[in-house]
Design brief:
The complex is a heterodimer of chains A (534) and B (185). Chain A is mostly helical. Chain A contains 16 helices and no strands. Chain A has a single domain, classed as Cytochrome C Oxidase, Chain A (Up-down Bundle). In chain A, helix 7 runs antiparallel to helix 8 and helix 14 packs antiparallel against helix 15. Helix content of chain B is 29%, strand content 35%. Classes of the chains: A mainly alpha (534), B alpha+beta (185).
């Protein structure tokens, strides 16, 4: 960043102080007060990258402890705090802000808008995040330690959290408010600020997936906020929403939580679908196959995500009719998802494909997300889910869809648009090395966890029976390999920001879309005159 | 600069979306009565067991159903709590009276609330109580021990495939009472 910033400073001096239109103000306050969508996008992305390593460090504490059976490094209660905060940080502090960063940077440029519709709200929704994250992390230093109930915060266990409890609840509130405001902003931008001629069905798919994601967020996040508020009043104000003694029911929380929790799954994966839908056509040198069906499939997934939540709790004692309903509706989701996988594959079919780093990550996504999708289909079956429930099989499943799924799409997107953001090409060789190291280690990390789960190893425990030792050791080796491989990514990004081959405005041969019509790096203000869309 | 009509349409859409978020916050709370409605319909969660039923009318002397009694206290709960008989054979439609023994293990005053649960869920609707200690909170003097009685019958309409029903109670310290007791001491 320093090189480009330095150049901008000189530029500012030559124009004098009252010239606001051509460049950003200087120094730290630029980032605090900015209302520019590109600045805020950068803030989101940098924040997400930092949180990737914070959450990743916690994952490595977990894997270090699980390297061998027995208790080696940490107290079991601290282990549980690690699993809990690792999940909360990675979901609310890393992957969601990362996609919000992409949305901020790219959506206005993709639809030919000069900025986001509500720039001040945009600034606020970002700046809530660091405070929420610090509040959440500070719980680790409090008497009684951080929350150790798992990120699902089930009562009555979560009510045994020490002084950290209200901080946990309020940080969840803040994270929720932040993402609701970001969603409102994205919807208003897309609905009101498209360039003339940019009809909804001409929008790049990334904008489409984010539009639907934003609606999912507005529908789901407030329900979580309500649920955790009930936890708060149960603990401090004598209500009995979830306390059986006062006539409440702890199972009710699970319903409320997963009513939010399942749309949340798609909130995380839909923007990833969007990014992959931008990358694959570019490097296959063909337009996206079945654009319309992609849009409808995304909408169908969005709708279905609201009626499947209880498949997370098959073992809780539901009536048979309920289990049947949630099983079948869950399996129905495989259809629109299958449409997407088919369309991506058909886009590549007979294309002249080249495998630059973004494409490697996108194809990796396609393969490994499908593995996670298939294990999801297995878990949708009620009878077998009784075996998988709360085992490492679940852990393997959701990490496959989140890490080589959502995270790989985000990394691929970063490589794809880095030249547009920085004006330099990244180091292609290092990028490919990063991909192959990540892919090998991520599979070593998560694939054995399928076997562990099927053999009966429960999740969220710091110790295990000796028959699970070998696969846990391999998994831990994979975890450290994967974790340290990401340092390479940081290096590639820093190197790309500081210099490298000049990027043209087109960057990739066959890249289509308005963002490739502006120079690289993208000027501070773009599309102040709306572009012509054919 | 943003034109005035555009600003207005931004404001209108923002307001609507904000309203949607607030409505969904309310919907989260609406899930609470909705959940209990579903529990009442399906009979799960022990809900039908907390209101007194009318006395039985007809007895089905041909049929025998095993009824088991389970008593639970949570970790650190200050009670001794167990059923006096672990199971009995009942004729549907006939009134039975059983007792659970409870003892306050502390040297102070306690208020308890028993919460019932019936398994299997399909049988819960047909398990009728005419009197139960779970209908009211139970006060215990320091170290007091006493029998808690429940009077019940099985509705003869109980599905034929149900031949065994378990009635379980968990005895809690009443939360508000616990708070006042703590402040008193």
């Amino acid at each position: 960043m320093s090189a480009t910033q330095h150049a901008e400073h000189k530029h500012d001096h030559s124009h004098g102080h009252d010239d606001h239109d051509h460049g950003p103000p200087r120094g730290f306050m630029r980032w605090v007060t900015t209302t520019n969508h590109k600045d805020i996008g950068t803030l989101y992305l940098v924040f997400a990258l930092v949180m990737l390593f914070v959450g990743g460090a916690m994952a490595l504490v977990i894997r270090a402890e699980l390297f061998e059976p027995g208790l080696q490094f940490v107290h079991p209660d601290f282990f549980n705090q690690m699993t809990t905060i690792h999940a909360l940080i990675m979901l609310f502090g890393m992957i969601m802000p990362a996609f919000a960063g992409f949305a901020n940077w790219m959506i206005p440029m993709m639809i030919g808008a000069p900025d986001m519709a509500l720039p001040r709200l945009n600034n606020w929704s970002f700046w809530l995040l660091p405070f929420a994250a610090v509040m959440l992390l500070s719980t680790l230093l409090m008497p009684g330690g951080g929350p150790a109930s798992g990120w699902t915060m089930y009562p009555p266990l979560v009510l045994q959290t020490g002084d950290a409890f209200p901080f946990l609840i309020f940080s969840v509130h803040l994270l929720g408010i932040s993402s609701i405001m970001a969603s409102i902003n994205i919807i208003v931008t897309i609905m009101n600020m498209r360039a003339p001629g940019m009809t909804l069905m001409k929008m790049p798919l990334f904008a489409w997936t984010w539009l639907i994601t934003a609606y999912l967020l507005i529908g789901a996040m407030p329900v979580l906020a309500g649920g955790v508020t009930m936890l708060l009043t149960d603990q401090f104000f004598g209500t009995s929403f979830f306390q059986a003694a006062g006539g409440g029911d702890p199972v009710l929380f699970q319903h409320i939580f997963w009513f939010f929790g399942h749309p949340e799954v798609y909130i995380i994966i839909l923007p990833a679908f969007g990014i992959v839908s931008q990358i694959i056509p570019t490097f296959s040198r063909k337009p996206l196959f079945g654009y319309d069906s992609m849009v409808y499939a995304t909408a169908a997934i969005g709708f279905l995500s609201y009626i499947v939540w209880a498949h997370h709790m098959f073992t809780v004692g539901m009536p048979l009719a309920g289990e049947m309903f949630f099983m079948l509706s869950t399996m129905l989701i495989a259809i629109p998802t299958g449409v997407k996988i088919f369309n991506w594959t058909a886009t590549m079919w007979k294309g002249s494909i080249s495998f630059e780093t973004p494409m490697l990550f996108a194809v990796g996504f396609l393969f490994m997300f499908s593995i996670g999708g298939f294990s999801g289909l297995m878990m949708a079956l009620v009878p077998v889910d009784f075996q998988y429930h709360d085992t490492y099989f679940i852990v393997a499943h959701f990490h496959y869809v989140l890490v080589p799924g959502a995270l790989f799409a985000a990394i691929g997107g970063a490589y794809y648009w880095l030249p547009k953001w920085t004006g330099h090409m990244y180091d292609e060789t290092l990028g490919r090395v990063h991909f192959w190291l990540s892919t090998i280690f991520v599979n070593l990390l998560f694939f054995p966890q399928h076997f562990l789960g099927l053999a009966g190893m429960p999740r969220r425990i710091p110790d295990y029976a000796t028959q699970f030792a070998d696969w846990n050791m391999w998994s831990s080796i994979g975890a450290f390999g994967f974790g340290f491989s990401q340092l390479l990514f940081v290096w590639v990004v820093i190197k790309c920001v500081r210099g490298g081959a000049r990027a043209t405005s087109q960057v990739w041969d066959e890249a289509k879309g308005l963002e490739w019509t502006v120079p690289s790096p993208a000027p501070y203000h773009t599309f102040q005159q709306a572009p012509d869309v054919k | 600069m943003i034109a005035e009509p555009e600003k207005r349409s931004h404001r209108r859409l923002t307001f609507r979306l904000g309203l949607m978020a607030v409505a969904m916050f309310g919907f989260g709370f609406l899930l609470v009565p909705f959940y209990y409605l579903l529990c009442d319909i399906t009979g799960i969660g022990g809900r039908p067991a907390v209101v007194a039923a009318p006395a039985p009318s007809a007895v089905d002397a041909q049929r025998r159903v095993a009824v088991e009694f389970v008593a639970t206290v949570n970790e650190y709960a200050p009670w001794e709590f167990r059923p006096e008989t672990s199971s009995i054979e009942v004729e549907p439609g006939k009134l039975y009276d059983v007792a659970f023994l409870a003892r306050n293990l502390t040297d102070h005053h306690l208020v308890g609330q028993a919460v019932p649960s019936i398994a299997p869920g399909e049988g819960a609707k047909y398990f009728r109580k005419t009197e139960c200690f779970c209908f009211q909170e139970q006060e215990f003097a320091p170290a007091e021990q006493r029998d808690l009685r429940v009077q019940f019958y099985l509705d003869p309409a109980l599905p034929k495939y149900v031949d065994r029903i378990t009635l379980s109670y968990t005895l809690y310290v009443k939360p508000q009472a616990a708070a006042t007791a703590a402040s008193r001491s």
